[in-house]
Structure formats: structure tokens, C-alpha cells
Design a protein that fits this description.
By secondary structure, this protein is α/β, with parallel strands linked by helices. Helix content is 15%, strand content 34%. It is elongated and about 65 Å long. The relative contact order is 0.14.
Length: 179
């Protein structure tokens, strides 16, 4: 009897471990590097990421090669600030993070007092080089306007027909028509 509970417990633990990667798909991430105006790395800089809607802040330090990473961010708009004693504070405002995004924000800090601030501007790059993942966010209005028979949401994830290369449509079983 104890052996049966042990096997059941191991199965539950295995299922939880396997399901962990799917939980990460609801978050975004901000990563980048901090250098000085000459391009030299700035280790130990404090990088603060602030969600503008909730005011929640997360602070990390740059590593020995000047890189930082802030994972598990809820989708939203963020302000990022980098600072270190002897450098002007650098800020990037209004960065939008979506589900699955890996946004890169690099800072080039200038020598000066901490009370001085440098505003970094620029849009997100069109090419995401931080991840091989491919995805997009679909707004609720677009989903509501889809022509679905009976509003069955499973029609969105299970296409009824697949396109065959030049031979016409395939049936749901995968066989081309007439075979």
C-alpha cells in the first residue's frame, strides 16, 4: 500500500516538473548590458525595472561582464533605470513587455554625478536576437470577430484541413483527397 502511494507521489511530482516550462509562457523578460561612454563594461551597476501600472520594482546588479537579466515580468509597460556611483543615472521609459518577449535594453552610462539623468530613447528592435521563440499577442477584439461556428475556441488550435504542397487540401486524417 505504501509503495502505491510512493508511485503516485512520484507521478504527481513528475507532472509538476514537466508542466513548469509551460508556466513560463505567461511572462516576459528584460535583459541587456551596461557600458560606459567608451564601451567598457560596467560591473556592479544597479538596474531597477518598474512596472508603471502597479509600481512594483525589481532591482538587479550587472554581473562581471556588465550584463543583467530580469526574468518573469508580467506583461505591461516598464521603466528601466541603471545607476552606479560616479556615473549619471540612465533611464529608459515606456518599454512595453508582452507575453514571451525578451526585450534588450542596453545602457551607455556617462561619467558624472548620480543626480544627473540620461534619458535613453529608441524603439524595440524588429529582430529579436535573444530567443528563438516565435509568437505574437492576439487582442481580444480580433478573437471575438473571428467567424467561428458556435464560438468553439478549439477551432482556433486544431485546424480542420492542412495545406498540401501543390496537391490540394488534406483531410483531417492527413491523407490527400482521392487516396
Amino acid at each position: 500500500m505504501i509503495q502505491r502511494f510512493t508511485h503516485a507521489g512520484l507521478c504527481v511530482a513528475l507532472l509538476l516538473i514537466v508542466s513548469l516550462p509551460s508556466a513560463a509562457q505567461t511572462f516576459g523578460e528584460i535583459t541587456g548590458s551596461v557600458t560606459d561612454s567608451t564601451g567598457a563594461i560596467v560591473a556592479g551597476a544597479s538596474v531597477t525595472v518598474t512596472n508603471t501600472a502597479t509600481g512594483v520594482q525589481r532591482t538587479v546588479q550587472t554581473n562581471e561582464v556588465g550584463n543583467y537579466n530580469v526574468p518573469f515580468l508580467n506583461p505591461g509597460t516598464y521603466d528601466i533605470t541603471a545607476q552606479l556611483e560616479g556615473f549619471k543615472q540612465a533611464t529608459r521609459s515606456g518599454l512595453i513587455v508582452q507575453v514571451g518577449d525578451v526585450a534588450r535594453v542596453n545602457f551607455a552610462m556617462e561619467i558624472g554625478a548620480v543626480t544627473e539623468t540620461i534619458e535613453v530613447t529608441g524603439g524595440a528592435p524588429l529582430l529579436q536576437t535573444e530567443s528563438t521563440a516565435l509568437g505574437t499577442v492576439i487582442e481580444q477584439q480580433r478573437i471575438v470577430e473571428l467567424p467561428l461556428n458556435g464560438r468553439n475556441f478549439l477551432q482556433l488550435v486544431r485546424p480542420e484541413h492542412q495545406r498540401d504542397r501543390g496537391n490540394g487540401l488534406r483531410r483531417p486524417g492527413g491523407q490527400p483527397p482521392g487516396r
